[in-house]
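Notes from hallway chat w/ T.B., transcribed later so I don't forget. T.B. wanted the structure written out for a chain they're using in a teaching module, and asked if we could keep both sequence and structure tokens in one place. Agreed to drop them here.
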Amino acid sequence: MTGLPVLVWYFPLWHMGISGYEVAITAVISPLLFAIPSLRYAATKNLRALHLISLVSLLAYKFQDPANRLFVTAFALSTTCAAWTATFFAERGNSARLETRIMAWGIGLILSVVAKFACSTNNPLWPIMHGTNGGWNKIGLAIAVVAVLRSHRSTFTSGGDYLPASSKKGSSLLAGLGFGGLMFAIVSLLTDSSTMISWVWDGYPVRGPIAVPHGAVTIFAMGAGLVFGVFYPAVAGSWTAYGLGSVGAALLTYYHHWTGYYGALVFAFYIMAAAPFLITSCVRHSPASTFGIGFILYVFLLLFHVWVVAYAFVPGGPLVREHTDWVMITTMLSIGAGVFSAATTNSTRPRNKPISPNSKRQRSYYIYVLAAIQLLAVSIAYLRFPTNDYTPHHKEDKVVTAGIWTVHFGLDNNMWAAERRMRDVLGELELDVIGFLESDNQRIIMGNKDVTQYIAEDLGYYTDFGPGPNKHTWGSALLSKFPIMNSTHHLLPSPVGELAPAIHATLDMYGEMIDVVVFHSGQEEDPEDRRLQTEYLSKLMGSSPRPLILLSYLVTKPLEGNYNTYVSELSHMKDIDPTDWDRWCEYILYKGLKRTGYARVSRDTITDTEIQV
């Protein structure tokens, strides 16, 4: 579910526009096939076979060609969605077994988040992972096969309706919308413990949560919500709970620091608590009209949440430009529709239905398993907590080595996760300060990950990333071996084209305060945007009383056009090498410092952009 969009993203990234491969995301709508009764019957009677077939995705990493890896994963995801839909639907006549399936699904989600937490936000079973870049593909496949064989032994399923035909079932359409909103909320915000933290991060000094250790707190909120939803479905399905969840979503969307994060925790708790009763409501209707419709809405919301930042490259993009708030409102309204339908359905259930001893035993297992997972998350947070001394490479000489690199979201030219190769290059270059551009991966289509975490922890860097995913840019990041005393995130004027992000940070370099600016200019197609951005940034640099380094992507030719504003009396900046005539995008400028050297370094196949140092 999270691996396929990452593969899809590779193709428009290289085509610099819509590639046609984006259609693969519709693989999730396979439950629509269950409108055919014979297919629905066959699926519910052959669950083990369906789940085993879906495991082909764990072998996708064996395919070197990116397109083949995409096709294999799309087929597997289509099978997976059908398999889980049939799994839920097959248990509609037995509430205890349905609860077990829902809990297995929810705990599996949380365990995948813990796995990403352990692997610095890469899922070790993704098709972009393999043995040399941190993948656990073989281990994952072995566990998956055993799990399917163990959990889908032949059992009797009644095949009867969950409720008598005369009972109220609510609306299948509203139930489907609720499921679609639930899936989007989970996949967009709850498949990585750092995603919502990046939403509320707003620079140094630290005034809110950080990915490590607070990712473990997010995982706890998810687990607690799932248990609450199973133990107290009437409360979790109430309009009061929905209102609290909506308040949490609003706080997450509009506030930074701890206030925003408290909203994120409420949101995570509510979404996981809502999952059991929303799925239970869906199985009381035809799966094609609930899960099928739900996944259609999911695809719509997935596109919607990419369009808000990719508006310069897609048809109709300007209509939804910078409207993450609209995406969140649509998500919560959809979940509200599901709550309304579930309330109608659940009104026919006995309020105080006795819990069987077997169900009580099952529920105690849920608690034990989730407690073990939480202890694992806390242990990972402890082991990953930064303990580096952050020593610069040339401390004795008071030299700073700085670089700029457009990393293209951490996917290499052959569609593999590139963090380890990036780390190796940066270590060889002995960089004290590095700016990353096009580095914001906190969306479904990029896998909800953070390319800076592994590199920063392994090489010993302080990190700043921003503006955040809810600010609608492609992202910038700063990694520094010097303490970051203060940092400010900027969105530069962009009336026509895509937003231009910048980080303005003050670093303590050997006892002196030095400013560093990491900046990505707008596209070549939008000259007015770039002119306004040039004036804004040049004034910003010129107003700084401290020495300053600009690590940037300027979209201009040397000695021409906007270059002469960046390098001018207005900015007081000098070019690192005015004689380097064939640059186009990346530039290093400086003032108040002594230049000792300059190099342009081949990126090999890590990305298509060089490193300037």
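Follow-up for T.B.: The longest strand covers residues 500-509. Might be a good example for the class.
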